[in-house]
Amino acid sequence: MNRGHGWAIQLGGSGVCADSIDRSGADVKSGPALFWLGVYSLLVLAPLVLAFSGTVPASGGFAWDFAMALGFAGVAMVGVQFVLTARFKRLAAPFGIDIVYYVHRYLAVVLLVLVLGHVIIVGWVDPDSVGPLDPRVAPGYMTVGRIALAALLLVTLTSLWRKRLRIEYDVWRHLHAGLAVLALVAAVAHVAGSGHSLDTPFKRIAWLVLALVWLLPFIHVRMLRPLRLLRRPYRIESVQPEHGRAVTITVVPDGHAGFDYRAGQFAWLTVRASPFALREHPFSFSSSPSQPGRLAFTIKALGDFTAGLGDLRPGERAHVDGPYGAFGYGRHPHAPGYGFIAGGVGIAPIISMLHDLADRGDRRPLALIYCNRVWDNVIFREQLDALAARLDLRVCHVLGEPPEQWTGERGLLDDGIVARHLPEGAARWHYFVCGPTPMIRIAERALSARAVPLRRIHSELFDLA
């Protein structure tokens, strides 16, 4: 996944196959998934139950009560957003953390709509309750409410339009965290200050407890997890230049046993910074999990952070938070064969799977269609030749600008290329697609045209923001 500069959450795109989201849904485990969806619903509904339990204030009419419900639900969703981005593995396991982040992004839009609905309806039903805009004369709870709304607007717009606004990734990470905390704290203060539906000491205390519970995941992510990572450092073993302005960074545990992972997964990598510095970036593993201890990340220079990785030196310290992700053949061990379609550095998680299959002596039929602009940019082309000799692997290179003597596929990926390089009966295989979004769309359409069911197509998006 060269989530390189950031795929998953935004993420930037350099070596991860992006916020990687397996959109097939085949990997979602229904039992645990339903459990966590139920927990989410309860967390969102808890403030409503609290507000409208016991002594209920006199109704201001349906529109007013509806506006209050929207406000409570919106604030609760802001709080639960911290849970969704805390990388709790038990929560993410049924879906894959990529899907959790994907949901987090779109729930941000939903909660913003709820909060705006609250503001608009309140202003329409009772304009006097809104009060003046001047913070010098406006009630304090209204001022902090407006601060919460402004923070929500900024955190959402800067996330959805980060690239259009040309906000550098590391700057955005700090801005995102700061605005999110400000939005939650101000929203909680607004509700507590207004006193609506929190008219007893018990309700006010319970509301503050809820707020603290919502902030616990933030404390876990920004304080407890970095402390754990600081105690379990890694050391850079090698920095290997690759074709196409890419580099493979190999790290080994420094004083501990490391962790196990599955081929196709990814981790957040921090170099030349403390884990507390919010300078971590997600990248797919390009190494084989059958070789424990050593972790390799293959990253393409696509931004300020990734462009400087080639300057790293063996012996430097690194920090690795992982593994994460549901992308990989390991969840489909009984498939009769596997197909792979990669674009550019999207080959990173796929090369990990191929190495793992080779190390296991797997003899199932495999097919890889690998798309690049020019031959000099084809990462791992020598490794692919060697793997083809160890596996029952057919490799098709597709070049957008091939040299004159090129006899292989040329141009952009299309239905014809996919049809020509998948063997008969391959509709029963599982397929793994990683690369730029347009290429993924084409690959999915082409596979569907070959009667491959959606549940057997697993795609990682290069970029979600």
Question: Under the CATH scheme, which architecture of the largest domain would be assigned?
Answer: 3-Layer(aba) Sandwich
Tell me, briefly, the overall form. elongated
Radius of gyration: 25 Å
Mean pLDDT: 85
Query: What fold name stands as the CATH topology of the largest domain?
Result: Rossmann fold
CATH class of the largest domain: Alpha Beta
The tally of structural domains comes to: 2
**Adjacency order of strands in the biggest sheet:** 4-3-6-1-2-5
Write down how many β-strands occur, each being a DSSP E stretch of 2 or more residues.
Answer: 12
> What portion of residues is helical?
40-55%
Catalogue the unreliable spans. Answer: 1-27
Number of helices: 13
Largest beta sheet, briefly?
A: 6 strands, antiparallel
- β-strand percent reads 15-25%
The fourth-level CATH homologous superfamily of the largest domain is: Nucleotide-binding domain of ferredoxin-NADP reductase (FNR) module
Order of helices and strands: HHHHHHHHEEEEEHEEHEHEEHEHE
Structural class: alpha/beta
Q: Terminal Cα separation, in Å?
A: 15 Å
Briefly say what this structure is:
By secondary structure, the protein is α/β, with parallel strands linked by helices.
Give the helices and strands, then pairings.
Elements: H1 30-51, H2 62-84, H3 89-92, H4 97-125, H5 127-130, H6 140-160, H7 169-194, H8 201-231, E1 234-242, E2 246-253, E3 266-271, E4 281-284, E5 295-300, H9 304-307, E6 317-324, E7 338-343, H10 347-359, E8 365-372, H11 381-390, E9 392-399, E10 409-410, H12 415-421, E11 430-435, H13 437-449, E12 457-461
Parallel strand pairs: 7-8, 7-11, 8-9, 9-10, 11-12
Antiparallel strand pairs: 1-2, 1-6, 2-5, 3-4, 3-6
Helix pairs in contact: 1-2, 2-4, 2-7, 2-8, 4-6, 6-7, 7-8, 12-13
